[in-house]
């Protein structure tokens, strides 16, 4: 069973804080993704990575950065959290572009 | 521009009734489409993809390129089908997905 694990289920941070969301997958998948999930908007891609140290912007990268130093770990960084970044964040991984994407359980981030 | 539209935010059906979730897409290339499902307190998971042409949990979906649609259907809804359903379009060779806004399905006894 593929496991995609996000380090926190719930986070509350203050405006201006630097926030790290961590995601680990245990199936040696090449591709990893960060989405945010908002009611009425569905899932929107923030960043994705197709290899270690490789990253590409998604549809809404502003205010975010990512890091992939090891194949199994993909981190999402909010350099200076703002209230409009309050959302559910989902990490996903896939073995290749033609295979199923597996999702983590999500991190609900609240920025106050 | 690629786009996925799910026109219904909420579908409420009775147990045993048919259910159809609509999905329309716009894409200039050859589309690959998926349905993902999220049950309460569970992670998002793949329900089915059009290229496999299989039925999962009684659900089917047919890609209609003429109408640019990929509607999800089930002839007899069950209470355990209550969930949020997302239609998704693969938009490039890396496997990035464009999701619709989602449809919440509530099946009442």
Short description:
By secondary structure, chain A is mainly β. Chain A is 0% helix and 57% strand. Chain A has no helices and 11 strands.
Rg on CA atoms of chain A, Å: 13 Å
**Helix-strand topology string of chain B:** EEEEEEEEEEE
**Unreliable stretches of chain A, pLDDT < 50, 5 or more residues?**
none
What gap, in angstroms, lies between the N and C termini of chain A? 36 Å
Sheet of most strands of chain A: 7 strands, mixed
Mean pLDDT of chain A: 94
Beta-strand residue fraction of chain A: over 45%
User: Roughly what is the average pLDDT of chain B, rounded to an integer?
Assistant: 93
Structural class of chain A: mainly beta
Backbone shape of chain B: globular
Shape of chain A: globular
Fraction of residues in β-strands of chain B: over 45%
Describe the structure.
- The complex is a heterodimer of chains A (about 110) and B (about 110).
- Chain A has no helices and eleven strands.
- Chain A is an all-beta fold and about 110 residues long.
- In chain A, the strands form two sheets. In chain A, strands 2, 4, 5, 6, 9, 10 and 11 form a seven-stranded mixed beta sheet that branches.
- Chain B has strands at about 5, 10-15, 20, 25, 35-40, 45-50, 60-65, 70-75, 85-90, 95-100, 105-109.
- Chain B is an all-beta fold and about 110 residues long.
- In chain B, the strands form three sheets. In chain B, strands 2, 5, 6, 9, 10 and 11 form a six-stranded mixed beta sheet that branches.
- The mean pLDDT of chain B is about 95.
- Chain B is built from no helices and eleven strands.
- The radius of gyration of chain B is 13 Å and the shape is globular.
- At the A-B interface, strand 4, strand 5, strand 9 and strand 10 of A face strand 6, strand 9 and strand 10 of B.
